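Listing S7. Sequence submitted for prediction.
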Amino acid sequence: MNVFHIIIGLVQAIFLKVFPSLGYEGVINTQISVYNKIKKRAPEMSENESLNYLINSRIRSIPRVASKEEEYAHYTPLLEDANKTLEDVIWAIVEYEYVLSREEQLFNKLSKMGLSEPEIAAARDDQMAKPRRYIKESIKKKVKSGSSKLMSEERDATQEQHKKIWHDILRKSKEFPKDISERFLIADNIAPLKFKENHDYYIMDTYGDHKPTPSCFHPQFDMPSGYPYWFASAYPDVVKYFSTIEDEEFTRLFEDMGFTEEDLKDFNNPKMIDQEGYFRVDILYKLKELYKELHPNAELECQ
């Protein structure tokens, strides 16, 4: 087999590890779908505003290939470019998530095989030509289906399939520490599709044509404080329950957790609140476990 084709195969294999469920086609179609929804829901927005909203929604989305700060730094020049096009934005997303964020890893792997820099560069350029063509063709056709195949597969997913999907996604994400994925999302069999719909609803606000589960709060007006997006997306029924009980009952819950009356006077108490301003993970865990104890015969909304 030609060495060049071997290189191409290796590059493809490494890229598929980034998005095993979607592939670059799914990422491209998803961005076009979001763009179409933005234009439909907010026709008054200028083209540049719509594209900036698309970029920011991608930065806020999970899983991430880098920290939020690193992603903002990467996309800042594009955000400031008033002459960018939809093709520019989608290509920047694909190039960053498939290549630039993992370029050193890819280079090291191929270098260890004894391949020269020109051979590696040629393989990279050849591989990148495919998504660029696909972006052009998809924009021309105004794709609106997004990742329907993935969504259909997830609707029929069993608990083991859910677990596999979470492991595939979370292995590449810096958003969730390992204990969160295992003690929350996987342990409670949270359906990835429901989580995604809720999370997109929260980060896209009114500009997304989303179908959140019934207990989700409106992200602009009545989102309770103290709950990170990942928890509110996975456990909207838990958030709703503890956000609507009487203050006295909520106080008793925290006292039962070992907090004193003095602790509860300061909402920013580091014993309860993390550096991001949300309840600490151990408190979130106790709240969702208590909710399950109080509702033993009910499934979690996102299972």
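Caption to Listing S7: primary sequence and predicted structure tokens for the chain studied. DSSP finds 15 helices and no strands in the chain. Residues 149-294 form one domain.
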